Amino acid sequence: MSKEPVTFDFKATPEKWDIAAHVLSLENSIIREILKISSRPGVISFAGGLPAPEMFPLQEMKRCASEVIDMYKSDSMQYSLSMGITPLRDAIAERETRQGCPTKTENILVTSGSQQGIELCARAFISPGDYIITEYPTYVGALQAFNFYQARYATVDMDENGMKVEQVESAIKKYRPKMIYTVSTFQNPTGITMSEERRHALVELAMKYNIPLIDDNPYGEIRFAGKPVPSMKAIGGDAVISLGTFSKIMAPGLRIAWINGPLFIMPIFERVKQCSDLHSNTFTQYMIYAFINSGKLDPHIERLIENYGQKRNLMLQEMDKHFPPELKWTRPEGGLFLWIEMPTGVSASKMLPQAIEQKVAYVYGKPFYPDGRGDNTLRLNFSCATLDTISEGIKRLGKVIKDNLR
Predict the structure, then answer these.
(1) Are β-strands 257-260 and 240-245 bridged in parallel, bridged antiparallel, or unpaired?
(2) What is the DSSP letter of 228?
(3) H/E run at residue 115
(4) Which of 67, 237, 270, 282 has the highest Cβ tally under 10 A?
(5) Do strands 162-163 and 179-182 pair parallel, antiparallel, or not at all (unpaired)?
(6) What rounded mean pLDDT belongs to the chain?
(7) What is d(CA 356, CA 364) in angstroms, rounded to the nearest whole number?
């Protein structure tokens, strides 16, 4: 027997709910918004930070998924430890140690993407109004995470050798920051790598003033030119909290990354993570462990390096050919991005609709600056395009830029 629908004297008005002011002030990711536009048919996009989909190890992941179900059965789909499954943490610690960072399993916490690692650091250290030292420009996703906690920024300029560390001590004395955040290797957005000398100097300052140094390192294994430099974690040990991810060396949809931190802080991160999502995806953790255990991860990374290196080289060649001499751009030795600076007064944000009309897209630079400057800059991604679309896209973009310089 059906019941009559319940009626109420009042109507719900969610638009009048009292949402927290700092949440209302959050903005959508400009990169995600541009990706919506650049997904139109025929548009060549250099906008996203996307790994090449043709490089995803699909067949191996299919094999690993079957292996995980056969081997771990229902455990692979059950709740698991907040710190992450032990076999994967063991494997990450072994890889970190092999790369020059002596690491125990207890130093590793598995996160749901490295974005969660950034967010957990903000949760653990930042109260409203606290300062963070960042590079200028810096990763827009980190700014989004930090802005949620109402952080303020003490920015440090960059040159071809990365953060100008000689500016850091005065910033520490003036702003008393709660953390230093850097993307020291193949930085997002610029592609620049901090020199070894500056890495040592920055670690020394972090130790001197006892400030946690967060090194966001998603690209460190993707080097296709130049001489490797020790990671910040290898240099600084317990002074450094490093963030790593499988998004760039396997596939981002797996959403598995990690924090490598000093033993003292890890129980704090564990409690903070429990407030967020209890634990990261159990099944994909087991899949990644199976892939590492098969011995096929390192050969896969070598193939990525070859693929991305070819694309980077071609993009630079085409830029040399089609871009006007008034522009400056970086020549990254690894990672996914390069950075362009146009003459002052030329607006990359206003130029974007013109570029879309010519069926090419990029990310303009303003969102990477905490103070919203840098409108004459833009970021290009070379990993997700093909060789053919790189050639054609840079040609189209060069024409748009030349039209705006007249």
Answers:
(1) antiparallel
(2) -
(3) helix 114-125
(4) 282
(5) unpaired
(6) 95
(7) 13
Residues 252, 257: Cα–Cα separation, whole Å: 9
Q: What is the pLDDT of residues 341-372, one digit of tens each?
A: 999 999 999 999 999 999 999 999 999 999 98
Instruction: Tell me phi and psi for residue 282, to 5 degrees.
Output: -65, -50
Tens of pLDDT, residue by residue over 295-338, are 999 999 999 999 999 999 999 999 999 999 999 999 999 999 99
For residue 224, what are the contacts with CB-CB under 8 A and spacing of at least 6?
Answer: 305, 306, 308, 309, 312, 333, 334
- For residue 196, how many other CB atoms are within 10 A of its CB? 14
R_g (Cα) of the chain, nearest Å: 22
**Which residue(s) pair with 244 in the sheet?**
258
**Are the CB atoms for 286 and 88 separated by under 8 Å?**
yes
Q: How far is CA 320 from CA 313, 329, 398, in A?
A: 11, 10, 10
Domains in the chain with CATH codes: 18-56+299-405 (3.90.1150.10), 72-295 (3.40.640.10)
**Residue written as tokens 């702003």?**
175
Separation between Cα atoms, residue 99 and residue 249, nearest integer Å: 15
Please say whether the beta carbons of 231 and 101 come within 8 A.
Answer: yes
Residue 38's pLDDT is what? 63
Tell me the two tokens of residue 95: 């890889």
236 closest CA partner among 187, 210, 199 = 199
Let me know: does 308 contact 382? Beta carbons within 8 Å. Answer: yes
For 29-65, write each residue's pLDDT tens digit: 666 677 677 667 889 999 988 999 999 999 999 999 9
Structure tokens given for 27: 């903005």
Integer Cα distance of 37 and 204 in angstroms: 44
Token code pair at residue 6: 């319940």
Structure tokens at 392: 């054609």
The full DSSP string for 163-225 is E-GGGHHHHHHHH--SEEEE--SS-TTT-----HHHHHHHHHHHHHTT--EEEE-SSTT-B-S
